[in-house]
From TrEMBL:
<dbReference type="InterPro" id="IPR001214">
    <property type="entry name" value="SET_dom"/>
</dbReference>
<protein>
    <recommendedName>
        <fullName>SET domain-containing protein</fullName>
    </recommendedName>
</protein>
<dbReference type="Pfam" id="PF00856">
    <property type="entry name" value="SET"/>
</dbReference>
<dbReference type="InterPro" id="IPR045606">
    <property type="entry name" value="ATXR3_C"/>
</dbReference>
<feature type="region of interest" description="Disordered">
    <location>
        <begin position="70"/>
        <end position="140"/>
    </location>
</feature>
<feature type="compositionally biased region" description="Low complexity">
    <location>
        <begin position="93"/>
        <end position="104"/>
    </location>
</feature>
<keyword id="KW-0732">Signal</keyword>
<dbReference type="Pfam" id="PF19633">
    <property type="entry name" value="SDG2_C"/>
</dbReference>
<dbReference type="InterPro" id="IPR046341">
    <property type="entry name" value="SET_dom_sf"/>
</dbReference>
<feature type="region of interest" description="Disordered">
    <location>
        <begin position="34"/>
        <end position="56"/>
    </location>
</feature>
<feature type="domain" description="SET">
    <location>
        <begin position="309"/>
        <end position="448"/>
    </location>
</feature>
Length: 878
């Protein structure tokens, strides 16, 4: 979403206050901010190279590429300023949905950077406010920690639990966690292992029960520190060149030896209530030196001496580690073996709808939505698609009730993975080692978390210290190339067409069930839903499959365009496989969003109708007679609205005359009602064009609108459900972020979500998006013009002095035609003569007709609008 310039200024001000340095360049002089996207590994994640099994040679060259890229980025950012993309500003994907002229860019405003010099205290540590350097000009070393990104000095306490705690809808949640192996599980597993199975449908991974590693004995929960990518590179740069260490060894020195020693030193802060936010690396290197001297390890001695010399001589460079909060460290002398079970990820289990209610509550209670997001402790527990009852999900939140698994930190080169396994007939999230873990090594896994918020992404500077660190422990989604196919092939009209089709059929075909089954959606997710919802879901799955085939090409095109700016030698094969991997990620995310949507609407339907199956289809096409009532003669018909709007501006006898003629032209009695209705509307159009226009009464514009209605066939009634108010969810100040703990004390806040009449329709239409708390309002905004035509009252002034915006000249008509012809799925802008219903009861437009019939916009309709003579021109129309 684009930011208004005011918001941007505010943001920049807050950055100034916080000595913004992460993902940015900041130097002594004022500089532009440049966003550095997370670097992706130039490897194929799907062919078994995940989690650190790549050899270091590849990593090393990867880093080199990144260095070159960031150096070039730096150059280009000094000379370029991005411009906003008008296409995105008013699309239905934009949060604000206004047609403002705000800009997407953050790069064209200058930043004042502050210079602060870190100084050691007597105890060798820094105070939180010290030691933030933004003065260095050397910006090619990647993301840097910011003051605002640091974990606040509140150590969260949690209630230790031994089992999952289900928050609500216990039966439902239990069902979703229950394993159901397919009858031919063993054969499937074998054929998948031997590579004879075509489908790569993820099968449940059955494991025997194993006790977790004992806290306090095999693992320790302690304060942990890490280094940002910048510091990793700073250390590499400080290593004496004359030593015969290859790059891989240098990386491992930082990632392994240094981090282990660091975390041994900082352990003492655990529970002390006095943990510094940053910690100097000097004593860490000294300790390594001491050990190496004792062991007679000359190479390491030289390395440490070299680094210490650099620390001494490069006073402007800050050699520090940053606090990550609590973490988990291996405390077993012989270490952990590869594939060892470490611990279950326990927490409170939420049905998805309830989790999102809580998120809506958090957003509504957070007074300032730019507040840093609180640390997150939640993981989706997803049923494997190869389960006999199919895919589904619940949310495990480990913020308040948990075990030590919740304190495991993220790494971009983790030593563990979090995976869903089937243990004793129930799915759980288990943390398993993916390689050997040494004594003293921090236990980590890749959070694989995504955010749609650029601010959140940028604030989440990663401190894993790994050589392949992506810079943020979150991934940014919902941007650029990933949305291409969705925007082009799955616009508002397309989605309404699919929904209308599903509502009219209100039955599920065998092909629908097969399609859903092939995507891994089965009885667990779909059970109990009305047929029209299942039929619609099958149509969405068809789109998701279509997108999966189209997207790699789009992503590849985008990535190549980006990289060609910086590199001449690009390996097309690597880029292609990278694009495939990313497209697969989008595919999985789409299915996840569909599942989340279905869970939300099922809940609301259950509240509104008792049995969700009783929820009637929300879209219903008007019969010809109903269309006559809606347009021509019914109570509150459009023609009535037109006459009422005209009344203050037209002489009474003229109006009465028109009224009588309208009555006489009622098309309801005709054999071909549609034909007659069109004829009557075209007659009315010409009658209205014959009435005198003034700048307060734009009969010319009203006549154009009648014309557009005359060419519309498909009118659709929106059936509203009753509103539903949920029982309260309880939100603790900790859920809102540490800042609120001070403000709100320790009391829980209640939040009751109300679901509006069109919530289900809105959520189903915006199935791919979970960020809107009121998808029904988004729906009304997205419908403007393209689905629901303007009100007649738009063209007649109620006030004495019309605003200058009541402009309806050739340019407005041209704009309208361009929208209708070239961008039919985009809503019409707000700041024009048109006004729209906030919640239209009936929708319909020639553009919807075209989508429903998969045809072009009616040429005759367009031709008339293009060529009809102008009958009036107000002063400001030109
Ligand atoms: C699931 S919690 C992990 C436990 C947390 N450190 C604590 O003290 O409770 C996730 C939070 O830990 C911190 N964290 C975890 N991994 C990190 C990393 N690689 N870099 C920076 N911060 C990290 C972030 O504050 C994140 O929001």
């Amino acid at each position: 979403a684009s930011k208004s310039s005011h918001e941007r200024d505010e943001l920049i001000k807050s950055w100034e206050d916080d000595t913004f340095a992460g993902f940015s360049s900041s130097s002594k002089c004022r500089k532009k901010i440049n966003k550095v996207a997370p670097e992706r590994k130039y490897s194929n994640r799907s062919n078994g190279t995940v989690n650190g099994s790549l050899d270091y040679g590849e990593y090393a060259s990867d880093r080199e590429i990144r260095r070159r890229l960031s150096r070039l980025n730096k150059k280009s950012m000094d000379s370029e300023s991005e411009t906003s993309d008008d296409m995105d500003k008013s699309s239905e994907y934009s949060k604000s949905n206004t047609d403002s002229t705000s800009s997407d860019t953050e790069s064209d405003t200058e930043l004042k950077s502050q210079s602060q010099t870190g100084q050691s205290r007597a105890d060798g540590s820094f105070t939180p406010d010290e030691g933030f350097d933004s003065m260095t000009d050397d910006r090619e070393w990647g993301a840097r920690m910011t003051k605002s990104s640091l974990v606040p000095p509140v150590t969260r306490k949690y209630e230790v639990i031994e089992e999952y705690v289900i928050v609500s809808n216990e039966e439902d949640v239990k069902r979703k966690m229950q394993v159901s192996l397919p009858d031919d599980y063993v054969e499937k597993l074998n054929s998948q292992k031997s590579g004879t199975e075509e489908s790569d449908m993820e099968l449940p991974e059955v494991k025997d029960y194993k006790p977790r590693k004992m806290l306090g004995e095999e693992v320790l929960e302690q304060e942990v520190y890490g280094i940002d990518p910048y510091s990793h590179n700073l250390l590499l740069d400080s290593m004496p060149e004359e030593l015969d260490w290859d790059l891989a060894e240098k990386h491992m020195f930082v990632e392994d030896v240094l981090l282990r020693t660091l975390n041994k030193q900082v352990r003492r802060y655990t529970g002390s209530g006095n943990t510094p936010m940053i910690y100097p690396l000097h004593p860490v290197v000294e300790e390594i030196l001491k050990g190496a001297e004792e062991d007679g390890d000359v190479r390491t001695v030289r390395m440490c001496q070299g680094i210490l010399k650099a620390i001494e001589s490069r006073r402007d460079d800050k050699y520090v580690a940053y606090r990550k909060g609590l973490g988990v460290v291996c405390n077993k002398e012989e270490g952990f073996g590869e594939e060892d079970f470490v611990v279950e990820f326990l927490g409170e289990v939420y049905p998805v709808w309830k989790w999102f209610e809580k998120q809506d509550g958090i957003r509504s209670l957070q007074k300032n939505n730019k507040d840093p997001a609180p640390e997150f402790y939640n993981i989706y527990l997803e049923r494997p698609k190869g389960d006999a009852d199919g895919y589904d999900l619940v949310v495990v939140d480990a913020m308040h009730k948990a075990n030590y698994a919740s304190r495991i930190c993220h790494s971009c080169r983790p030593n563990c993975e979090a995976k869903v396994t089937a243990v004793d007939g129930r799915y759980q999230i288990g943390i398993y080692a993916v390689r050997k873990i040494q004594y003293g090594e921090e236990v980590t896994f890749d959070y694989n978390s995504v955010t749609e918020s650029k601010e959140e992404y940028e604030a989440s500077v990663c401190l894993c210290g790994s050589q392949v660190c992506r810079g943020s422990y979150l991934n940014l989604t919902g941007e650029g190339a990933f949305q291409k196919v969705l925007k082009e092939w799955h616009g508002t009209l397309d989605r309404h067409q699919l929904m209308l089709e599903a509502c009219e059929l209100n039955s599920v075909s065998e092909e629908d069930y097969l399609e859903l089954g092939r995507a891994g959606l089965g009885s667990c997710l779909l059970g109990g839903l009305p047929d029209w919802v299942i039929a619609y879901s099958a149509r969405l799955v068809r789109f998701i499959n279509f997108e999966r085939t189209k997207l790699p090409e789009e992503i590849l095109k985008h990535n190549l365009e980006e990289k060609r700016k910086y590199f001449s030698d690009i390996c097309l094969e690597v880029e292609k496989s990278d694009a495939e991997v990313q497209a697969e990620g989008v595919y999985n995310q789409r299915l996840q969003n569909l599942a989340v949507t279905l869970d939300k609407v099922r809940y609301v339907m259950r509240c509104a109708f008792g049995n969700p199956k009783d929820a009637p289809p929300p879209l219903e096409r008007l019969s010809p007679l109903e269309a006559v009532s809606f347009l021509w003669k019914g109570e509150g018909s459009l023609v009535q609205e037109l006459l009422q709007s005209m009344a203050p501006h037209v002489e009474e006898h003229l109006l009465n005359d028109l009224r009588t003629k309208i009555l006489a032209r009622d098309p309801s009695g005709s054999d071909d009602i549609w034909k007659e209705l069109k004829r009557s509307l075209l007659w009315l159009r010409d009658e209205v064009r014959n009435l005198p226009c003034t700048y307060k009464s734009r009969n010319d514009a009203a006549a154009d609108l009648i014309h557009i209605y005359a060419y519309t066939r498909c009118f659709v009634r929106i059936r509203e459900y009753k509103t539903v108010t949920s029982p309260p969810v309880y939100i603790s100040p900790l859920d809102l972020g540490p800042k609120y703990t001070e403000k709100l004390g320790s009391g829980f806040q209640e939040y009751c979500k109300t679901y509006g009449e069109n919530y289900c329709l809105g959520q189903l239409i915006f199935w791919y998006n979970q960020t809107s708390a009121e998808p029904d309002c988004s729906l009304a905004r997205a419908s403007r013009g393209c689905l629901s035509l303007p009100n007649f009252s738009s063209f007649y002034a109620k006030v004495q002095k019309p605003s200058l915006q009541r402009v309806y000249g050739p340019r407005t008509v041209k704009f309208m035609l361009a929208r209708m012809e070239k961008q039919p799925q985009r809503p019409w802008p707000k700041d024009r003569i048109w006004s729209f219903d906030n919640s239209p009861k009936v929708i319909g437009s020639p553009m919807l007709d075209a989508a429903v019939h998969k045809s072009h916009l009616d040429r005759e309709m367009v031709h008339w609008l293009k060529h009809r003579p102008a009958i009036f021109q107000a002063m400001w129309d030109r």
